[in-house]
Structure formats: C-alpha cells, structure tokens
Design brief:
Layout: E1 9-12, H1 16-28, E2 32-35, E3 49-52, H2 56-62, H3 65-68, E4 85-92, E5 98-105, E6 108-111, H4 112-120, E7 125-126, E8 131-137, E9 140-145, E10 150-153, E11 156-158, H5 165-171, H6 173-176, E12 179-180, E13 183-192, E14 204-208, E15 215-222, H7 224-227, E16 237-246, H8 258-270, H9 277-284, E17 292-294, E18 298-299, E19 313-315, H10 330-335, H11 338-341
Parallel strand pairs: 1-2, 1-11, 2-7, 4-14, 11-19
Antiparallel strand pairs: 3-6, 4-5, 8-9, 9-10, 12-18, 13-16, 13-17, 14-15, 15-16
C-alpha cells in the first residue's frame, strides 16, 4: 500500500490523549488534523482531577517548555505540590480513624479541565465533528463525520473514548463490547468554605466501611488560589467526592434524577452502623441541586488481534484500554502512548 506523504495524520477526539498526540506530532513537524464532536472545550462536564505519575516524563518530551511549565501551576493543592513525599490516608469510615497512613512518591494531582486547556494551546481543533466511520484507500484513509464531510489522511488515530466507534469497526461489535462491572458509582464535586470542608480537608484520602463495604475516594480539585476566589468575600474550596459499592443482585439501580442520586448517597452513608458523625453530617448538608454523576464502570479485557486495516488505523486511550479509576493509572498509560505511535 502506498501512502501520500503530504497527507496529515487524522486524530479523532480532542480529549487529553488526542491533544497530547497532537502536541507530539507538532513538535516533530508531522502534519496532522484533529477533530472533536463537542462544540468547544467547556461544552460539557470535563471531569474532576487526575494524578500524573510516570506520564510527566513523556509529557516533558513532547510539550513546548512554556506549556510544560504550566502544569505545576494547576496542581489542585499548591501546598503539597513541591513535596518529595505526599501524605495519603485510608480511613475506617465507621470510626473516622486511619486504618493505614502512608506517604506516596511525589506526583502531580492536577485539575483535568485546566490540563486540557494547556494541551489545547496552539492546536487547531475542528469542533462539531462527530466521527462516523472510515475506509482505507490505496494511499491512506478517508474519515467521515456526521455532518456529511470527509477528510483524507495517512493514518487514523482514534482517541474516541471507551465506546469507541473506531474500535468496533476494527474488530467487530462483539469483540469490542465492554465488560460491565457490578459496581455502583456516584461522584460529585463539592464546593464550600474552609469550615464546611474540614471533613474533606486532606489532600487525598480513601476509606471503606468495614461492615457495608461502601468505599469513598476524596481528593482536592481546587483551592481558592487555583479557582480564583482567593481574597474575595466568598473564598471556596472544591473536592472530588466519589462513593462506590458492590451492587447486590436484588438492589435497585441508582435513580436517574439528580435528587435521587444525592438521596442514595446519603442513604449509603447511614447504612449499617453508618459513617462516623463528622462525615455523615457533612454529607447531609449536600443539597439536591448539587450535580451528581452516576458513572457506569466498565473495562475491556485485553485481546490479541491482528494489525487491521493495513496498519492505517490505530486506537489509543480509553478506546484501547478502558479501566476503572481505582489505581489512578489510566491517564498515565494514555498520555504516554504517543511515544508508541508517533
């Protein structure tokens, strides 16, 4: 198969992964075009915070120095940004006492939306372009979109999320199907002043109720210095608060409405002997209009497959390896993948 040298690489998906690949290709002088289904960077909910570990080195090698230098500035908790070791606590949610306490290696816990903004700098994103399919030609690949347009490129690099259309086309719908996990998950971003945030004040903590198995992950999302409220009359902090538990066979699904999700979260906090009083009181203060997300947890068991479409189509990020968030690794795997394909 011949390839037309002046054609660009076509990237589908302008999330963190697609944008990192775009920056890497730009740094190497390789032509590319990047397409995104959304209308803009802030057109829909952009997530909470992510931990960057081994991905920092690949990011440093593909980003211009002025962009890489911005990453430490979006650390969700500036007070711990420069520490060699970062405290982490695992609580007994019945008593509120630490079951385990440790210090982890230094890493960056960064605001996801702000990281995407950094990665998008200098990149010409084609918005409102929902990917619908591709076809391989003698000299490359033709990519089609929902608005009826087509573009031609040398390679399609699809970072189109866990429900990847490109993956389904590569290996068939059955092989590409995700594996549903029997885990319920409710997540929200809590906002409040310093007094309200006291039960959530640690940089990052986790915990489990010993009797019910309900699990909590809580992490800073922003301080007044990061969110711009410092010095104002309404300084606020934000935390990422995630609750999950193994679903019982006879358990009702999480309600679809927002108030129902909040009620379910409070119900689980009181189940059995309940959470320790300070945390339970803080959760009782969550109002029904606080946006709560019910996230369906899925993964995709690793499969062996032949190189498809003449090697002209590849998938990366959640399209290639959707996984749960409990190990804090997914973003690092994804952000480092540009080295393998660029």
């Amino acid at each position: 198969m011949s390839v037309q040298a002046d054609l660009p690489i076509i990237i589908v998906g302008a999330g963190l992964v697609g944008l990192t690949l775009a920056q890497a290709l730009k740094s190497e002088g390789i032509p590319f075009e990047i397409y995104e289904r959304d209308s803009g960077l802030n057109s829909r909910y952009g997530g909470w915070a992510i931990s960057l570990h081994w991905a920092m080195k690949p990011l440093a090698s593909c980003l211009p120095p002025e962009l890489y230098a911005q990453i430490p500035k979006i650390h969700v908790h500036p007070e711990v940004a420069d520490r060699d070791r970062i405290p982490s606590v695992y609580l007994n949610l019945e008593t509120g006492k630490p079951k385990f306490a440790a210090e982890t290696q230094s890493h960056y816990r960064v605001h996801r939306i702000k990281l995407r903004e950094i990665l998008s700098q200098g990149i010409d994103i084609k918005w409102n372009k929902a990917f619908t399919g591709y076809k391989v030609t003698n000299d490359g690949v033709v990519v089609s979109f929902a608005d009826g347009t087509e573009v031609k490129g040398t390679i399609l690099a699809a970072a189109d999320g866990k429900n990847s259309r490109a993956k389904s086309m590569l290996m068939g719908r059955e092989k590409a199907a995700l594996h549903d996990l029997p885990i319920a998950f409710i997540g929200l971003k809590l906002r409040g002043d310093e007094e309200y945030m006291k039960p959530f004040s640690l940089h990052l903590w986790q915990g489990t109720h010993p009797a019910t198995g309900v699990y909590i992950f809580c992490s800073r999302v922003s301080t007044p210095q990061l969110n711009g409220s410092a010095g104002s009359e309404k300084e606020y902090h934000e935390v990422q608060f995630n609750m999950s538990w193994i679903m019982k066979e006879d358990e009702s699904p999480i309600p679809a409405d927002n108030a129902g999700k909040i009620a379910k979260l409070k119900e689980k906090a009181k189940e059995g002997t309940g959470f320790y009083p300070g945390l339970r009181k803080a959760l009782d203060g969550i109002t029904d209009d606080q946006e709560a997300l019910d996230i369906k947890l899925q993964d995709w068991p690793t499969l062996d497959w032949d190189v498809c479409s003449g090697g002209r189509v590849t998938i990366l990020g959640d399209a290639a390896h959707p996984m749960t968030m409990y190990r804090g690794e997914a973003a690092n795997h994804a952000l480092a993948q540009w080295e393998e394909i660029s």
